[in-house]
Structures are given as C-alpha cells and as structure tokens.
Amino acid sequence: MTWWVLSLLLSVLISCVAAQASVSEAEVLAAQRSWGDALVNISTTYDQQGFPAAKLLAERVIDEAYGYQYGPVLFKPTLAYGKQKFRTTRAGALAYFVGGDPAFPNDNGFAFKHWRKVEMENAAIFRDVSVASSVGEVILTDMDGVVTVVDKTWQFLKGADEKLRIVGHHSSLPYLPDSTQTIKASEVIAAQKAWGDALVNISVTYEQFGYAAAKAVAEQIIDAAYAYQYGPVLFKPTLASGDQTFRTTRAGALAYFVGGDPAFPGDTGFALKGWRKVEIKNAAIFRDGNTGTTTGNVILTDKTGAVTTVDKTWTFFKAKGGKLRIIAHHSSLPYAARPSNSSAWQYGPMPSRISAAPPGRCWSRAAVFVAVALAARGSKR
User: Fold this and answer.
1) What's the number of CA atoms in the CB half-sphere (13 Å) around residue 29?
2) Cα dihedral sign, 199-205-211-212
3) What CA–CA distances, in Å, run from 61 to 32, 33, 58, 103, 243?
4) Which CATH number goes with the domain that contains 123?
5) What is d(CA 40, CA 141) in angstroms, rounded to the nearest whole number?
6) 189: enclosing H helix or E strand
7) What is the bridge-based pairing of β-strands 275-288 and 291-302?
8) Model-level pTM greater than 0.90?
9) DSSP code of 160?
10) Do 89 and 154 belong together in one domain?
11) Residues 183 and 325 reside in one and the same domain
12) For residue 371, is it within any domain?
C-alpha cells in the first residue's frame, strides 16, 4: 500500500512538473512578436538617440530573448558569412545586431537598418515539453516601406523561470531558382498593357469622380506596378525637367502622375490629361533571369483623338509570387532632326565663274569663296 501511494505521488509530481515546463503555441507566438518588437525598438532608438543607447538596449534584448546564459546558442544570422557565419556567443550576436566590434569587422548592424514593422508567417510549430521549434517567413519593413523577406527557423527553450529563450535561430534569404523565376515575354507584354490600362483608369476616374479619387487610384497603381517597396526606381518621366527630372521615390512618381504636391511644383498631373487609349509597340524585349527590359514606342490617345507618341524603355523585375514590377522607366519625346534647309548655307556645286571685278576685289572674293567652301567641305566630313 505504501509503495502504491508513493508511486502515485511520484507520477503526479512528474506530470505536474511536465505541465509546468511545457510550451504552449501562444507562448511561442508571443516570443516571436517580442523579438520583432525588440528589433524595431533597437532600430528606432538608434535613429532617435544614437549608437550608445541602441547598443545598451540590444544587450538587454539579447540577454532576455536568447539563451546564452545556458550555453552556446545555435545562431546563424541572415547576412553573416565566411568563418563568422555562426554566432554561438553573446559577443557574436551583439556584433551582428549593432556592429562596432573590431572582432567582427564585417558587421554593420542589422538592427540599425531603420526597421519599422516585423511580421511572422509560420509554416508550422513543433512543441515537445519545454522545447518548441518554428519555421516560416519573417517580413521586415523599413522606414521607406521597403520590404525584406527571410526564411527563419527558431528553437525556444522554456527555462526554470517559465520564460522562453531562443537556443536555435537560423535565418536566410529565400532561394530563387532560375527555372521558376525566369521572366516570360508574355508576362512583360501583359505588364505593359496593365500600365497603359491603369493610366487610362486614372484619367477617367479624375474626370468622373474628381482629384481625390484619381489620386487614390494612382497610389494603388504605383504600389502595384512599381517596385518602390524594394528600393529606388530608376524613373525618368517624359515631362520632368531640371533638378526633378528623375523620380526615384514613390512621392516623386505620384506627383508626376497626379500633381498637387508642393514639393514638385512643376507637375500638373500627366495621368490627368484625358487619356483614352494606350498602345505599346516594342522594338525589342531583352530577358535575363527574373528581369525583362523593353524599348519601343508608346502611343497615347486622348479624349479629343489627339495622339502623342513617346519613346520608352522599361525594366521589369519578377518579384516574390511571380508579380512583375517596374524597376526602371525612361520616357522621352522622339528626337526631331533639323530639316535639311534649316542651315544658312549648304554645300553644293561650285559656281562655274566669279563675276568680273577689279583685281584687288577679285582676290578678296576668291579668298572668301575658298574659305567658305573649305569650311563647308569640312562640316560634311
């Protein structure tokens, strides 16, 4: 009877300890969110208060979020490489996040890249008593709206203090096989057509619903068609000039298409000019991997039937999910060659004679004639 009671008590104690140490899915999700919030916090602190304050914060975050106090952490950062690819020590992790350590000269501070938002999309979470592992994507957005996606595996350990700490962390950029990322000519042509349809849509929306509605449509189109979320777009619009010829930012592109931005006073809204039809005539399409470049004419017809032709070069990038986005866009009016009769004097057949004149004047006329003829011959070469 005594042994039976002791056995029962022991099993209850074991079950109790196991229940206390087990990791729930909610705890894993909370730990992931805390990691993302901490990354944004370090980045914002760096932007607002400088390096020393951000480094102190990063040290506290590492001590709270990672398990270096238990032993080596299996940390493989996204941008680490070579002999310092794996950061199993606290010093290595700190150097990766904030840089400034001569022992890790290639680190420039991953946490200082102006992050403003971190989202997690887990593929799966595995839990076994006090340990839980997750695998999925982490989507990071910086202050300019540029998005970076990484593939990430975490392993969390629930310690005696009931707190989850990271003991394994593997992060890498997504693999993009050429076979699935190769851009097709049909995709490029479809993207061009979509751009033309969008321009007409903005123009018609402006006429039917006013400026505010047209601007909202233009913003949606720019976000869908251009790649400003990845970085600067090499956009040279047709009618932009001076210091604002190149529109490498989203704000500059929006101002060109709809105007109304005091920062771009020369813009009157290219997309608001009553367009009704857009045709694309490509001279050629060059494709390489996940980019495609086109050159040719774009013919625009407005509501009065007036036609405008522009010379245009686009480069499209095949982004995640197979969507094409514009990363370069150069547009210009066709070059008009000077008419042949615009010159003051054209080289032609030499006169058969020089009119009679006094000897001195003949020499001077001959000298002028020879000089002009030689000058004209030289210009032809």
Assistant:
1) 7
2) negative
3) 13, 13, 5, 21, 44
4) 3.10.450.50
5) 10
6) helix 185-209
7) antiparallel
8) no
9) T
10) yes
11) yes
12) no
